[in-house]
Amino acid sequence: MSKTLGGSIFCYNATSQDYCIAEAIASLKALCDKVVILDAGSTDDTQEYIKHFADAKTIILNGSNSLWNMFKGREKLAHFTNVAMSVLDCDWNFNLQADEIAHENCFDAIREAIEQPNAEGYFVTRFNLWAKSNFYLDVDDSRKPVGQQILRLAKSGYWSIGDAQSLHCPNARWDYLDKIRIYHAGFVRDKYKHIPKIENMLVNVFGLDMDKKVLSMKDGFDPFLHFSKEDLKPIPEPLPIFMQDWANERDRINNVKF
Fold it and tell me: Comparing C-alpha atoms, which of 189, 194, 230 is closest to residue 213?
């Protein structure tokens, strides 16, 4: 009997901070048997926006802003990720963040992976798009703003930890690392909405000071104040179909010159 696969995602102020939430949800709905979307208490119109994604296999949950503010530190991201996952009753869970999209070319590999005997979880590859949507950041681990090898596919019962980059599954396997690919679009969002997003994450989530380099940016987010063009590589395949229109529009808005 085939294993069931649940998809989970949570968001906060996704519309005002230009998360590709609709595209992320579309990839989960195309892949999974059941999907849970949690709004963690947005103060913009995100809760209203995500209502239209509800259907027979998609559950929409709305949290309160007071609950969002109750949690401090990066672990709040894992908390709300786990709230979303806890609603699923599937054999396996595939988790995305609100600015990530799973590539449709990987769907067969994901279904194959969860049928493997004695498998508990899998590391996958995340391409962190940078500057333009057809380039990703390729630097050593000490310079990466977020990880590239992450654990997002695991049996039910394994939970997100820390800043929610990965699930905690000690016996996770690496043999599908190159076969399962997630595209992270968080660094190529609308450059004028990117700086408020950074401030929210650094100050309101991680409890840190605002990045002085970001504060110096006078015309929206400048990707080359942090990294150089030599730090980038072309993505190895066309973008997921779910995000191509979104990405083309952000490339037009951001107008980054190489």
Answer: 194
